[in-house]
Structures are given as C-alpha cells and as structure tokens.
Amino acid sequence: MDRSRAHPRSRPAHHHPWSPPLNAAPADQIRLLEVQALDVRLSQLAHKRRTLPEHAELDALNADLTQLRDLLVAAQTEESDTAREQTKAEQDVDQVRQRAARDQKRLDSGAVTSPKDLENLQHEIASLAKRQSDLEDVVLEVMERREAAQERVAELTGRVQSLQDRIGDTTARRDAAAGEIDAEVATVTKERGVIAGTIPADLLKLYDKLCEQQGGVGAARLYQRRCDGCRQELAITELNEVRAAAPDAVVRCENCRRILVRTPESGL
C-alpha cells in the first residue's frame, strides 16, 4: 500500500509529525493518569476557591456598605450644617434680646422725656419683641431639623456597624473555607510531586505541554475503545495501530492529540 496516499488517520497512533516517537514503560504511563487525576483535582480546588459563595456575598455587602457610608456622610454634613445654622440663629436672637433690654432700660430710667422719643422707643421695643419671637421660631425649626439629622446619623451609624460586623463574619467564613481548600491543595500538590518524580522527564514534559494546550488534560485513558479526553471512539484503523504499537510506545489520540494510556479496560 502506498503510505503517502493513505488516510491521515492511518498513520501510527504513537508517531505524530509534530512530535518525535516516545517510549515509556506501561507502569510510567499508568502513573501519568494518577498525575492527571491529581491535576484535575487541583483545577477543581482552584475553581472552588475562586467561586466560594462568600466572595459574591462580600461583594454585595461591600457595595451596600459604600452606599450606606455615602448616606451617613450626607447625614453628618446635614447635622453639621444645621448645627452652624442653629448657632447663627441663636446669636441673632441674643443680639435682638440685648438690644431690647438696652431699650427697656432706657425707657425705665426716665431719661427719655420727649413724647416723640418715648413713642419711638416703645415702638422699637415692640418691633424687637416681634423680631425676637420670629427668630426664636427659626431656632426651633432649625433645632428640629438638626435633631432629625442627628437621629439619621445615629441610625445610619448603627446600620454601618451592623454591616461591618456581617462583613467581618463573612470574611472569617471565607478565610476558613479558603484555608481548608489551601490545605488540601498543599496535600495534593505534595502527592503529585512524589508521583511526578517517578515519571520519565521527557514523558512528563510532553504531558505538561499538552496540559497547557488542552485545557488542563494532557493524558487520557483509552476506555472501551474511546478516548476519555475527547470522548471520541477510535476508528478501526486507529484501533489497529494502537493494538500494533509496542507496550512501551507512548500513543496519542488522533482526534485530540492527548497521550492515550492503555489499560486492561481499553477494549483492544
């Protein structure tokens, strides 16, 4: 048969134009599946850590906290403004009161004898009394607004504190959950290092390269004539090539290019 005209899937499964032939003991290839299983577990743990429900909960709580703090600053500003307004209104009342007291003292002293001057003085005292009453009403109105602002500040301060407590609790839960995951990651990583250390360097290098290219899966078992990596069933010509390959030949899936590890359940 002219090999140059053969179907591209008919070339030996263990020899790709993009990589030289590689040999490794069957036991080493089986151990590669153990490393793959541990890498999948590490990937799952990383995903679990990234998607802890506490992350979303903290995002929502912190967004609420930012909003509450803005409202609190606005309430504190209003309280501060009304406090200055109250001080100014009280000073205005005090000035009118002092002026009325001086006029009343002049009136009571008998020093003013002219009927016209007396009339003017009495008129001014009456006007000042009206002015003082109006200003005292202003003071009361400002005091009410200030009291409302103070109540708002107190309420928002309490809500901010409560939210900060929730954030603290949620952060502690997140850190505890992340700590458990990190502990498992450390255990799995150590186990992976031990097993990977027993695998030939060239085989491990190929596996690591394929992992980068194939979404974290560089090796897959051949199970019931199907590649566990891409879930594709091998064509009959491909199966024949795998059957004919030496036990220590590192074969590759023609479909996904992953290392294909043969086991007793391969169905060959």
Automatic annotation (TrEMBL):
Q: Does the keyword ATP-binding apply?
A: no
Keywords in alphabetical order, please.
Answer: Coiled coil
- Identify one Pfam family in the record: CT398_CC
Taking every annotated instance into account, which residue ranges of this chain make up the domain C4-type zinc ribbon? Answer: 226-260
* Coiled-coil residues: 118-166
> What protein is this chain from?
C4-type zinc ribbon domain-containing protein
Keyword Cell wall biogenesis/degradation found: no
Biased region (Basic and acidic residues) positions are 81-108
Q: Where is the composition biased (Basic residues)?
A: 1-17
Q: Which InterPro entries match?
A: CT398_CC_hairpin, Oxidative_Scav/Glycosyltrans, Zf-RING_7
Q: Which residues form the CT398-like coiled coil hairpin domain?
A: 35-215
Which stretches of sequence are listed as region Disordered? 1-23, 77-113
